[in-house]
Amino acid sequence: MQKPFYFKIFLVAALLLGGNIFAKENNHPVEESKGSLKAEIKEFIGHHLLDSHDFTLYTVDEEKNEHVGFPLPVILWDNGLKVFSSSKFHHGASVAEVDGNYYALNHGKIVKTDAEGTISYDEHHHATNEKPLDFSITKNVVFILLVAILMFFMFTKMAKSYKNSALPKGMGRLLEPVVLYIRDDIAIPNIGKKHYKRYMSYLLTVFFFIWIINLLGLTPLGVNVTNNIAVTLALALLTYLITTFTANKNYWKHIFWMPDVPVFMKLVLAPIELLGTIIKPFSLMIRLYANITAGHVVLMSILGMMFIFKNWIGSPLSFGLAFALSLLELLVAALQAYIFTMLSALYFGSAVEEHHDH
Amino acid sequence: MEIPTIVGAGLIVIGAGLGIGKIGGSAMDAIARQPEASGKIQTAMLIAAALIEGIGFAALFAS
Amino acid sequence: MDKLIEQFSFGLFFWQLLLFVGLLLLLRKFAWKPILNAVEDREDGIKNALEAAENAKREMQNLQADNDKLLKEARAEREAMLKEAREIKEKMISDSKEQAQAEGDKIIKQAQAAIESEKKAALADIKNQVGNLSVEIAEKVIKEQLSDKDKQLKLVENLLGDIKLN
């Protein structure tokens, strides 16, 4: 029973690694001023945090623009759908020409440019070029998709194992306590026994999604999906939408016309409460984003220190520190998933809370 | 003289750190007093800490 | 904040929303519902089994109590029956004793009556026998004496004289 599943994982890994052979490129050297080591590390961290349009596993030679990885499709909406391979950018070194339009990469973003690839900047060092709507399958999208597929197979397999016996087999043994924990310690206490079933699917999906994708961010693959504000915004938006659309009369009454307070206070409280409904998911979004970003920045900075020290005391020290921090990040990966799920459940609970006599 | 934003960031970190520290300390006291309620206390502690953390991060990004 | 807005990628937002909602719907249909239902069924099953066991235990206890009660009743009944039997026995014995007494008395009376009547009969018989014997003796005596006429006449006269005496 287990073999096909492992085989799938093996297949995915083989696909990921096998891509190297075909995708090895040796392209135009970049003319970049080589700064000090510190600046280089800083730039590397900055680059690491960004999404990218091609899947780079590691860089062989920065000078020669030699990377190991494979290109991903770029999908643009710029007066019509434009689809091309990201290999046309040559890792940002060249301008891609599609249907007479020229596109270039500027800090991981695609901007419209001319044939020479000139990018004009304003006083805040932001590019002023026109930005086409970018629906590209970026590295992060690939990983979201991978995690989605992985979760789908993992949990449908677990669901199937219940058909034969009351106890799950294989992965289910590991996952069932987590599922039960979410149900018994997150959903039921916060939402209540009456309504919790409606929200279980969302809570479970969001918990496992954030957890798995956070854990993947700690692998040397170098993806950090949840450190994109777009991803956390999408998740927080779903929490907000579910809260808003499943809320009962009591919830809205407490927002617009707080009971048992003087009329003047009601008028004061209404905008505050209304703002609160938006601040709640906003804080969810910022928290997840900031925790993962901060974790990655600190971890990579400490790793970078290894190359700055380059001696027998500093480097092992920073290695040990990085190791300890990695363990902490493992905890943070689960903790942030837990907090996100917990607070979502709390907001859902407030949305369906029955009227109590105060 | 303009105060650099990094000073503001430092202040935010001090404030958030103090707040989370206070929550953690109080939670420890509470657990010591009622070890049987440690599960509930931990949950409440995490939520409170997360809320402060959220505000801290929001302020950090605003600075 | 500017950095955040600068970094925001609409494409990633779009894909995340699309893929996540897709995953959510798929998992809800194919994973969460079956898993949660199975777990719930199992928990219900365990709960029911526990309840059934508890009920069985209680029933068992009731049964035990019933049994004890029945046993006690049976014992009491047996006791009562034994007592009754003993009473009946005693009564029967006394009754039969009385009856026997009465019977015995009756038999004795009958026997006495029989003895009386036998005695009378015997007496009567003896009288007859004695009469006959006396008659025979008398005959023999008379036969001897009556060998002559005078003696006969004298005897007749004597006899007659006796009869008169009778």
From TrEMBL, chain B:
Family: Belongs to the ATPase C chain family.
Protein name (database record): ATP synthase subunit c
Domain V-ATPase proteolipid subunit C-like: 8-60
Transmembrane segments: 6-23, 44-62
GO CC terms: plasma membrane; proton-transporting ATP synthase complex; proton-transporting two-sector ATPase complex, proton-transporting domain
Function field: F(1)F(0) ATP synthase produces ATP from ADP in the presence of a proton or sodium gradient. F-type ATPases consist of two structural domains, F(1) containing the extramembraneous catalytic core and F(0) containing the membrane proton channel, linked together by a central stalk and a peripheral stalk. During catalysis, ATP synthesis in the catalytic domain of F(1) is coupled via a rotary mechanism of the central stalk subunits to proton translocation. Key component of the F(0) channel; it plays a direct role in translocation across the membrane. A homomeric c-ring of between 10-14 subunits forms the central stalk rotor element with the F(1) delta and epsilon subunits.
PROSITE patterns: ATPASE_C
InterPro entries: ATP_synth_csu_bac/chlpt (IPR005953), ATP_synth_F0_csu (IPR000454), ATP_synth_F0_csu_DDCD_BS (IPR020537), ATP_synth_F0_csu_sf (IPR038662), ATPase_proteolipid_c-like_dom (IPR002379), F/V-ATP_Csub_sf (IPR035921)
Record's bilayer topology term: Multi-pass membrane protein
SUPFAM superfamilies referenced in this protein's UniProt entry, alphabetically: F1F0 ATP synthase subunit C
Compartments where found: Cell membrane; Membrane
Molecular-function GO terms, alphabetical: lipid binding; proton-transporting ATP synthase activity, rotational mechanism
